[in-house]
Amino acid sequence: MKLSRHLLAAFLSGAAAQAEDSPIYQQILDSLKTSQEVLPRQPNVAPASLLYNAEGVVPPMCYTRTEIRNNPCYVCHQDGIDGRENVMNDADLQQAYSFSDVGLENHWKNLFEDRTERIKAISDDDILNYIAVDNYSGLPSRLRAADFKGWIPDLKNLHLGKDAFDEHGFAKDGSHWVAFNYKPFPSTFWPTNGSTDDVMIRLPEIFRTDKAGNFSADIYKANLAILEANIKGEQSIGTLPVSEIVIGKDLDGDGKPGTATRIKTVTGWVGAAEDTAIESFLYPEGTEFLHTVRYVGIGKDGGIGPSPRMKEVRYSKKAKAYSKPMYARKYELEAMEKERGNLPAYYDLGHYGLDNGNGWALHGFIEDRQGQLRSMTYEENFSCMGCHNSVGSTIDKTFSFPRKLDGSKGWGYLDLKGMPDAPNKGESLGEIVTYLSRAGGGSEFRNNDEMTAKWFKPDGSVDHEKLLAAKDVYDLITPSRERALALNKAYRTIVEDQDFIYGKDPVLTPPKNVYDKIDNENTPTLPEERTFKWNILLDWPE
Fold it and tell me: Three-state DSSP class for 224?
């Protein structure tokens, strides 16, 4: 599809117009390199016409060379577990490369760029000063000035990380966002592979108030605990102390009013939401998640943690709740679409992001070339659907909340120090130890030389003696200062190019264990004995 010269010139914000036959995605990329607008201009054409990669839901790691033995795929691709809404049943993708004709080519071109010289050109002081800058706090006013209609960041001082919340994770600004402590998903969100992050949840007002409409911290804490129990399929759950007198229910089942630290009746909500339907493994309608992705921060003491600067601010809201039979039908219809060879398509909600087709609306903000946060383009949002709609291991399309530390210990800002390498449900060894053994490396691409040197023997097997001596999750998955600096510099070059649609993985040099093309029939696949059942839930110690 072509744009008129008049529309294209406006779209490029004064930049020289390209030839009319230039692909639309290229026009968008070129405009992003010059624009400082918080809302990037986008041609008014059908969403499919905007895409460079029509199979952008297939993430880069799906092109990993497994070499008939290394399996990083199992943490995403699983068959359904009884009682859950997720019945995608895609465990077969651990073995088979099952791509559409479009997906056979690896479109994630940024994987194959050698960034060595560009990284050398950025000094340590430059990158440290860059990631220390707050690019979050000015975003709300810029969005309002641009008449943005979607969700506007409403959690103050989030760039401060832990200091924006009290000891139990409740936002100090009264916005009712709650931070929780969870185990990062293997291995994309391990700091050693390039990013730090945090996640906050907020339940609708009805779950925070009494029947008269008054806010109640006790009611909110109890409903958060009840939600946690239901997402994890537990019959009881530990909770931050709540007053049974305020709530008007015997939550711990001891037969007398008092302060409950454990809830043994989790089949219904409390407060104003008492009559609202509840289902296991599902969030109630109106649930919100806020997820920030950040650079690998380096403290004055050399400690690794989240940087003030954010790479992305991601927001999702469960706009529509469905029953489990309805979800099952949706998965069935999606499988039929894939069988017919139809490419994925998602409804564009404009300022509200994309509809994932299963009740969630997702939208995000990402750095512009100057480092300010801007709204994501359609294609940048489109790639999010690969994880938040198209894998079988999630619970109601989410990763982090099911991985929260159980009970009261898990309410608070993310802290990897002191966190044990808990095994997944049904496993005996720690999740990280197990992943390293199955994946054959410290990342999906097996290109993390630091992790290999630290946790593997020369023969390629994991060094269980060293792993058992690790203090905690922090010790296991945080990088050295040198690696953190290099990863931050690598990502900075992607920001300069604004070509996120080619991939956001901050690889230092092109990984050897990645295919540029796939042959569904002849590319070597994993044998059945190298496939694994896996549960996203963790077996936290008491």
Answer: helix
Residue 38 carries which DSSP code? S
- Buried/exposed 87-98: b ≥16 CB within 10 Å, e otherwise: bbebbebbbebe
| Sequential DSSP letters for 167-210 | TTSBBTTSS--EEB-BPPPTTTTSGGGT-EEEEEEE--GGGTB-
Quick one: tokens of 304?
């690794």
Question: Which residues are CB-neighbours of 11 under 8 A, at least 6 positions away?
Answer: 3, 27, 31, 41, 42, 43
Whole-angstrom distance, CA of residue 447 vs CA of residue 391: 24
CA angle 441, 395, 209 (to 5 degrees): 130
Per-residue pLDDT at 474:
98
Give the single-character DSSP code of 28: H
User: Of 194, 163, 168, 164, whose CA–CA distance to 181 is shortest?
Assistant: 168
Residue-wise pLDDT tens digits, 24-52: 999 999 999 999 999 998 888 888 888 99
**Which pLDDT value is given to residue 20?**
54
What is the distance in angstroms between the CA of the first residue and the CA of the last residue of the chain?
59
pLDDT at 325: 95
- Stretches where the chain sits below pLDDT 70 are 1-20
Closest listed residue to residue 190, CA positions, set 465, 356, 419, 497: 419
130 in Cβ contact with 491 (< 8 Å): no
Closest CA to 499 of 57, 193, 127, 52: 52
Tokens of 96: 């088979």
Q: H or E stretch including 288?
A: strand 288-298
Q: What does the DSSP 8-state code read for residue 165?
A: B
Rounded to whole angstroms, the Cα distance separating 449 from 483 reads 10
Query: How would you classify residue 60: left for phi > 0, otherwise alpha for psi between -120 and 50, otherwise beta?
Result: alpha
Any idea what the Cα angle at residue 239 is, between residues 323 and 286, rounded to 5°?
Answer: 35
Q: How many CB atoms lie within 10 A of CB 5?
A: 11
Task: Reply yes or no: is the peptide bond before residue 187 cis, omega within 30 of 0.
Answer: yes
Q: Is 455 helix (H, G, I), strand (E, B) or coil?
A: helix
Residues whose CB is less than 8 angstroms from the CB of residue 326 and which lie 6 or more positions away in sequence, other chains included: none
Q: For the segment 148-200, what is each residue's pLDDT rounded down to a tens digit?
A: 999 999 999 999 999 999 999 999 999 999 999 999 999 989 999 999 999 99
Cα→Cα distances 528→71, 317, 424, 425, 519, Å: 11, 38, 21, 21, 19
509: burial class by Cβ within 10 Å (0-12, 13-18, 19+)? middle
Q: What is the 3-state secondary structure (H, E, C) of 371-386?
A: CCEEECCHHHHHCCHH
